[in-house]
Amino acid sequence: MKYFIILLFMCTSLSGIAQSTTWKVDDLHSKIGFSVEHMMVSETEGTFDKYEAVILSDEESFSDIKVDFKIDVSSVNTRNEVRDKHLRANDFFNVEKYPAITFKSVEVIKGEKEGSFLIVGDLTIRDVTKRVTFSATHKGTIVKDAFGHTRAGLLIETTINRQDYGVAYNGDLEVGGLMLGNDVDILCKLSIVKE
Q1: At 75, which CATH number?
Q2: What domain range includes position 43?
Q3: φ and ψ at 99, to 5 degrees?
Q4: The pTM is what?
Q5: Per-residue pLDDT reduced to its tens digit, 132-181
Q6: In a domain, 10, yes or no
């Protein structure tokens, strides 16, 4: 009986540590974007317009944040249907075989500046999973927005090498050099609402 009480106490204590506050991404005021160097002189930008996200945090500063993202790769949008169709093909994402990009956080580290932190987690593109670190900034919180909700803003970004994930397609330019850069900047501008 004594051990049962101790075990019950431990479980109760641990349950109090887990985050209980869920935040929902407001799709109309958020963007999951990326950019890559194009022909060495400009950048091609795009977004993923469909995704699911679970964001948990009880702390006002989001210093305990947990993030779980699943992106529908077929929703890639660079404002050019021919290019988007190519991105969905095997040269790039191979949507038919790998329909989702996922990210699951494993750790959050407080940053040097107020409202800044690092989100460390596993990013999976195609069939490759790698540990990456996103820089994050809490842009502020409105306790009561126009609809009576608590709303916060997050800016989350990182740079990855697409070659690391098997997205290796490229082309040579007549003047020398490659059509596409390897570094891809990822920028997530999120407006989130407390549920």
Answers
A1: 2.40.128.110
A2: 20-194
A3: -75, -10
A4: 0.86
A5: 999 999 999 999 898 899 999 999 999 999 999 999 888 766 565 667 88
A6: no
